[in-house]
Amino acid sequence: MAEHNDTIYALASGSVPAGVAVVRVSGPTVRELTIGLVGVLPTPRRAMLRTIRTRNDLAIDSGLVVFFPGPASFTGEDVVEFQLHGGRAVVDALCRELNTFPHTRQALAGEFSRRAFDNGRMDLVEVEGLADLISAETEMQRRLAVEHSNGGLSALYSAWASRLTRGRALIEAELDFADEDDVPGSVSDQVWDDMELLSTELDQHLRDADAGEIIRDGFKVVIAGEPNAGKSSLMNALVRRDVAIVTDIAGTTRDVLSTDLNIDGYLVRLSDTAGLRHTEEVVEREGIRRARQEIARADLVLYLEDRSVVAQAHDVPAGALRVGTKGDLQPGSQGTYDVIISVETGEGLPELRQLITTALLSKVHVQSLAIPNRRRHKDSLTQCVRAIRTALLDSEKPLDLRAEDLRVASDALGRVTGHVDVENLLDVIFGEFCIGK
């Protein structure tokens, strides 16, 4: 069983072989362990070139050693990093030697970050931001992750938590010392004015939650339409490689096929779906059912119509962009389209990408990236607003009950940063990290 007072180690850099490998060690025996390996405890926060040896005095490698004394380290404990040549045998030899020291073991996934959280070096929002920063693939994902991992969002929540705490304190003072001269009467009136303002601020903040989720998880664009409308061809054209199988046979696409695009620094998740039509074929019907599910979950639907054939009656999803395809062929009938394209000639493709970009930006126009980006953030903040509004709703309700509503609001806000009742979340959150972080 993993013990919190163990010293832990792991490869903290990319997989080997590599030019350089960094092995991180954290825990109560770091000082003794470091002296055992390099013969001296390096000057804090200064890289020192040392020969790393086994306790039998056999050289493992020569590399840089950096010592970070706690509590001013990533984990809040003593930490040492060994920067070695990135060969698999070199790293394995050091790890084998580390494992010979008492109470020393390989770290679990996310255990370094878990210790940073437990030791007060990071809160949950900062931890999640760090995980997002490691996995960021687009510029906007990086910016959002940096804002969260650097504490920008946490500072906002901390300020709100302080206002709730102050409000509760003033109410308690009025309840407990109402007859004392140094406690002015009706101080709670000041509290309710501020709580009204706070609920408005939280409402505005929650309105940006969808934008945060889109930046982090991607803008979901679904390509839909009847069979042979050119859906798979369009997908291949947008991503500029052959992702989907293209044939003249109706019903070739039977399942949802997804790939990612980077548009203006935003992640766009593009999905090709089965052609929408009535059919008795069992597999195709399942594909159509899944297509309709994807359409319902989409941020934007591109509804493709083959303009080279006679137009049929179409059940176009609300808010979809109508795209006329095969623009290089003679039109079979006239229709009203947002854009006409041809994947053969490239006609209309730049205009279509611009329409996708415009639809995306209409959903993520935020002034700041200090915004929630996870469902759990949104749920807890919604509970916080609901509790504040409950306190504000009935001014005739006893003051102690209204104070209890503010306590509920404070606890809900605290669950976002991990200051209240989050034990059941921790294993899930830290389990998403790679070993060594």
Automatic annotation (TrEMBL):
Cofactor(s) the record lists: K(+)
Positions bound to Mg(2+): S232, T253
Location of the protein in the cell: Cytoplasm
Known EC number: 3.6.-.-
Lineage of the organism: Bacteria, Pseudomonadati, Pseudomonadota, Alphaproteobacteria, Hyphomicrobiales
UniProt name for this protein: tRNA modification GTPase MnmE
Organism per entry: Rhizobium grahamii
All residue ranges annotated as the TrmE-type G domain in the record: 218-361
GO biological process: tRNA methylation; tRNA wobble uridine modification
Example of a GO cellular component annotation carried by this entry: cytoplasm
PROSITE patterns per the UniProt record, alphabetical: G_TRME
Entry-linked Pfam families: MMR_HSR1, MnmE_helical, TrmE_N
Function in brief: Exhibits a very high intrinsic GTPase hydrolysis rate. Involved in the addition of a carboxymethylaminomethyl (cmnm) group at the wobble position (U34) of certain tRNAs, forming tRNA-cmnm(5)s(2)U34.
Entry annotated with the keyword Nucleotidyltransferase: no
